[in-house]
Amino acid sequence: MAMDARRLEKIGQEIARIQAQLGQLGVVRPGSLTRQYKDPKKHTGAYYQVSYTYRMKSRTAYVRACFVKEVRQQIRDYRKLKTLIERWVALGIEHSHLSMRRRSREEMAPKDQP
């Protein structure tokens, strides 16, 4: 069907956009960055911590204040990476389904005999 062909083309274009966006990402790291206090009641002695799980191990590390902006960007880029990959996989599944359906129809279509 022409609809399937159009959708396959749109999927291809969207995958190309995702690939371009992936190329724009910088350093990535999982986790969440939080500000902690040595004395939480008085809010004194602030410091930053990044917590993350990698290869099924949970870890926590201190982050100097001068690196907070950089670490936040890395975490944002990681989340963007995960979102883009999830979308790419969904599009890949849809593309595979449509292309198989389209080829099946072509094989089943009666062939003109001279």
Describe the structure.
By secondary structure, the chain is α+β, with helices and mostly antiparallel strands. It has one domain. It is 56% helix and 23% strand. It is built from two helices and three strands, in the order H-E-E-E-H. It has a three-stranded antiparallel beta sheet with strand order 1-2-3, covered by helices on one side. A hairpin with a 4-residue loop joins strand 1 and strand 2. Helix 1 runs antiparallel to helix 2. The longest helix has 41 residues.
User: In sequence order, what are the helices and strands, one letter per element?
Assistant: HEEEH
Q: What separation lies between the terminal Cα atoms?
A: 24 Å
Overall 3D geometry? rod-shaped
Radius of gyration: 24 Å
Neighbour order of strands in the largest sheet: 1-2-3
Structural class: alpha+beta
Q: How much of the residues is beta strand, in percent?
A: 15-25%
The helical percent reads 55-70%
Question: Mind describing the biggest β-sheet?
Answer: 3 strands, antiparallel
Number of helices: 2
Low-confidence stretches: none
Number of DSSP E strands: 3
Kindly state the mean pLDDT as a whole number? 93
Tally of individual domains: 1
